[in-house]
User: Fold this.
Amino acid sequence: MIRLVLKNLLITGIITFTLAIVNNDNIVMLIWLRSWMVALTISLFFNVVVFSNSKNRIIGYKNNKQ
Assistant:
């Protein structure tokens, strides 16, 4: 799931950046870069902090169930 989110963020970023370059609008590129970095930081935070703990709990639950 996290790979899907990061893949979608990357694709969205590439498309937006390409459109900003085509329009040659520096302000749009700066706004895009700032927004994309915030989104990437939030995604990585959830991946490392939240989902890593959930994954360990699920693995522990499966091991206890056997």
Observations:
- The chain has a mean pLDDT of 68.
